[in-house]
């Protein structure tokens, strides 16, 4: 009952961020009012992209599970994002992670993979 059910990505440019994530993760985007975009993933939580005027500060880290971190980071760069942390082992057989910034100004979104 108290599990995570939704998450939001802050962005200075909602349309640009929505296009970026739709291409990167194949999320389905649906406009919802002024300066807001809702998204659905094939698996996992859906969420929204919300307009913000300033760069968001460090807060809760959100991780998106992917099959291939290096290939996903290459797509991040190709789509206009910036790699903040390359593939890094977590340790204790917990898998790997990486982080990037989207072109709409989100502070950081992380990637996770078992391999």
UniProtKB/TrEMBL annotation:
Residues in VOC domain copies: 3-113
UniProt xrefs under Pfam families: Glyoxalase_6
Gene3D superfamilies: 2,3-Dihydroxybiphenyl 1,2-Dioxygenase, domain 1 (3.10.180.10)
SUPFAM superfamilies hit by this protein: Glyoxalase/Bleomycin resistance protein/Dihydroxybiphenyl dioxygenase
Name of the protein in its database record: VOC family protein
Organism this protein belongs to: candidate division WOR-3 bacterium
Lineage of origin: Bacteria, Bacteria division WOR-3
